[in-house]
Amino acid sequence: DVERSQAKTDSLPVEHLPHPKNDPDSIEQDVLSKVSYTIGADPKALTTKQTYRGLAWTVRERLIDSFNKTQEYWKSKDPKFVYYLSAEFLMGRSLTNAVYNLGLEGEYGEAIRKLGYSLEDLQDQEQNASLGNGGLGRLAACFMDSIATTDLPGWGYGIRYKYGMFKQGLDKGFQSMAPDIWLSAGNPWEVYRPELAYRIGFYGEVKDGKWIPAESVNAVAYDNPIPGFGTNNVTNLRLFESQPVNEFNLDFFNEGNFDEATQEKRRAEDISAVLYPNDATDYGRELRLKQQVFFVSAAIQDVIARFKEQHSDFNELPNKAVFTMNDTHPTIAVAELMRLLIDQEGLDWDNAWAITTKTLAFTNHTVMPEALEKWPVKVMTKLLPRHMEIISKIDSIWKGSLADRVKAQIEAEPKAEAKAAASEESSLVPEDTEAGEDPVDAALAKYGIICENPWEKGVKLVNMAFMAVIGSKSTNGVAAIHSDIIKHTIFKDFYEIYPEKFQNKTNGVTPRRWLAYCNPGLRELITKTLGSNEWIKHLEKLSGLKQHAEDKELQAQWRAVKQENKQRLAKYIKANVGVDVPTNAMFDVQIKRIHEYKRQHLNMFSIINRYLEIKAASPEERKKFVPRVCVFGGKAASAYYMAKKMIRLVTAVGEVVNNDQEVGDLLKVVFLPDYNVSLAEVIIPAAELSHHISTAGTEGSGTSNMKFQMNGCLILGTMDGANVEIAQEIGKENMFVFGVDAEDVPRLREERKDFKDYDPRWVKVMDSLLAGQFGDAEYFQDLVDNVNDMTKSNDWFLLANDFADYLRAQKDVDELYKDQDEWTRRSILYTASSGFFSSDRCIDDYAREIWEVEPVAVPSS
Ligand code: H2P
C-alpha cells in the first residue's frame, strides 16, 4: 500500500530541520524567497499585495513550526482536550495578531520597514475571514486566542465557508448582498490536509439497524494554527470543506450531459458554500441541517480517530475529551456521538449514553426563538433516518422518566394543591393544563424533545435545545442575568430536574486583538503608566490605572490618543461613504447585528428627535448642542425584512441630516457597510459613547460592550446581558443606564395593548417619518406600525415605553461631555475596570468548572 507506507526518513536529520530564524535580516531574506518561489513574483518589482503574501507565508512557517511542536508535545502528554464545536468563527485578519502573539513585532517591524512598508500597510491587504455573523462567532474566535494563550489543550471545529456569510454593500441606501469571495488570493493561514477526509452520509434508509445513506460527501480538513500570546503554544482551528465523493462523471460528460456530470460536485460544495443559507425555502432549511451534521460528524469522527490511536476503552473518552456545543447549531452532536459509539464502535445503548452525557457540554447564547432551533421530524427522518431513530429513543426514555416524575408529584400532593403549587418553583405539572387534559400528557407535550408544532397541527418537531440539555453534562448561559433567565424561562423545568447542570459563564473578549493591537496608542500609554505590559496577559492588572484616573496629565494624553483614533476613523468614513465628519464632535457608535431586540431603531428615533430639536432651535440655542457623529454598522440577515428597513432608516436619515446646512457639524449620521472585524478594530478605539440598548432580558450578554469598555468608551445601556456586570465593575453611576428592568418586561408586554402614554417627542418623531420628512413614508409605514400602532403590533421590544428615559439618559451624556475632565476620568476608569471581561478569565472558568481541562504548556526547547 504505497499511499500508507512511510517515507524512509530514519536516516535523515529530521531533528535538525532548518527552523526559521527570527532576526530582521533573516526575515527579510525569507520574505524575498517566498515572494520568488511561493508567489512566483519578481522581487525587484513587488506590489504591496505580493509583499503581503510573501510576508504572510513567512509568518505561516513560523506558526507551523510551533504548531507542530505543540501537537507533538500534547500527544506525548495525552491530556484531556476541549473541542469547541461552532458553526461560526469570526476570525478577521491574522497577520498582525500572529506577528504580535509570536512576539516578533520588533523583528518583523524592522524587516517590513526595510522593504519600504509598515505592518499596517501590509495588513490592509489581507481579506477578513468572516466565517461568522456577530457576537457568537467572534466569541468563538476570542476563545481560540485565550485557549492558546492559557495553554489549554483545545481545538476548534467548524466549517470553511467558501463565501463567508455575505459581503454587504449599500445600493441607494438599501442593503445589498454579494458573495464574500475571501479566498480569491489564496489563504496562507491554513494548512490543507487532503489526507484527512471523513465520510458524511445523508438520506437513505435504516435496514436491520444499519444505515445505508443515499448520498455521501467527504469532509476534508484545513488546519488554522492559532498562536497564543506569551507562550510557545500554537493550537488548532480545524475547518472542514465539503467535497464530492465522485468529482466528475465522465460518462455523462461524454454523452453531452454536462450539468449532470458535475451535479454531485455542486451538491457537495453547496454544504460549505455559505454561512446561514437563506432558510425561506425547504432546500435552504435542509441545507442548514446538512451543514450542522456535516461539521459535527467530521469533528467527532476526527476526535474518535485520534482517541483510538492511544486508547481502546471508550469509557476513557470523557477523561480525554469534552465537546462544547456552541448554541444549538452543533446539538445534533448528541445523536451523532451516540450513533458512532453504538453503530461503529459497538457499544450498547446505556454505555454510549453514559459516555455521551459526560462528554458533551452545551452553551446557550440567546433566548431569541429563531435561534432555538426546532427541526421538523419529517425533514430529520428524510435526511438523517438513523439519527431520528436515536432521537426518538432518547425522547421516549426521557418522556418515560418525566411521566414518572409528574405522576409521583401528583400522588404526593392533593390535586388542587398541586395546581396551586405549579405556579413557581417546584412542579412539573404545567400551569396551563386545560380542564380535562391529562397532566402527564400536558407535561410530555411541553417538555418533550419531540413536540407538536404549535403553529401547524399534526406537524412534529425536534427541539434541539432540549435534546442538548438532556444529552450533556452542563448547560450554561453567557452572562449572570441571562443564565438566570434561562433557568426560569426556556429551560425552567429542566432546571428543576437537573439544577446541578446549570451554570453561568459570563463572556469575555481577548485583550490582545481588542485593546493591545487595535489601539497601539492606548497600549503604549497604559504600559507606560503601569510600568509594564503584563496586563496584556493578566488583564486584572489594568486596575492599577484607577489610582491615576484623576491625573490631569494622564487625562490629557488619554484624550490625545482618542483624538488620533477619531481622526483615523474620520478618514475611513470619508474614504468609504464620502461624509466629512468633525473630529471635535462626540463619536457615538452602535455596531452589531441588526435586530429589533437590539433596537437600532430606538437609537435612530432619538437621533431624529435630536435633529428636530436642532431644527427648532434658534441660532443662539444651537450653540448649546453637543455635536455628535453617529456611526452604525451591522448586517441584516438575508430573510429579515424589518432589519433591512432599519438599515434604510439609518441611511435615509443620514441623507437628510448630513446635507442640512442649518445643522452643519452639529449632527452627522453614517452607516458603514460591510461591518466586520477589521472595521470594528478601527471604530472601537475611536468611539466615545456606545449603545447597548436591547430590551432588558433579551440580549444574552453582548461582547462589544466589553470591547468598548476596554478602550475607554462610555456606555449608554439597559440593564441587560453583561451590561449589568459591567455596571457592577465600573459603578452604575458611571454608566448611562435607562429603561425598564427585565422582571417588568412580561407585565409591560401584557399591558401594551392599552398603552397610550406616548411622549410628545415620540409622537413628533413618528409623524416626521410618516410625513415623509426622510423620504418614502410608505416604506417606513410598517416599521413605525410595529412600535406605534397597538392595533397592528404590540411594540414587543418596548421602544415607546423606554423612549423618554432613553432621551433623559442621552441628555446626561451631553451634559457630561461638556466636562471633559470628568468624561476622561470615567474613560480611564472604564479601562481600569475591564479586567474581568478578558476571555482568559472566561476560558479559565470554563476549564475549571465545566471542561475539567488543565493547561499543558510547551516548554522552550
Ligand atoms: C449572541 C448573543 C449575544 C452574545 C453572543 C456571544 C448570539 O451573539 O445574542 O448576546 O454576547 O452570542 O455569547 P449575537 O447576537 O451578537 O450574534
From TrEMBL:
Cofactors required: pyridoxal 5'-phosphate
Reaction(s) catalysed by this chain's protein: [(1->4)-alpha-D-glucosyl](n) + phosphate = [(1->4)-alpha-D-glucosyl](n-1) + alpha-D-glucose 1-phosphate
UniProt-recorded name of the protein: Alpha-1,4 glucan phosphorylase
Family classification: Belongs to the glycogen phosphorylase family.
Region (Disordered): 416-436
NCBIfam families xref list: P_ylase (TIGR02093)
Keywords: Allosteric enzyme, Carbohydrate metabolism, Glycosyltransferase, Pyridoxal phosphate, Transferase
One record GO biological process: glycogen catabolic process
E.C. no: 2.4.1.1
Modified residues (N6-(pyridoxal phosphate)lysine): 707
GO MF annotations, alphabetized: glycogen phosphorylase activity; pyridoxal phosphate binding
Function according to Swiss-Prot or TrEMBL: Allosteric enzyme that catalyzes the rate-limiting step in glycogen catabolism, the phosphorolytic cleavage of glycogen to produce glucose-1-phosphate, and plays a central role in maintaining cellular and organismal glucose homeostasis.
Organism: Apatococcus lobatus
Keyword Transferase: yes
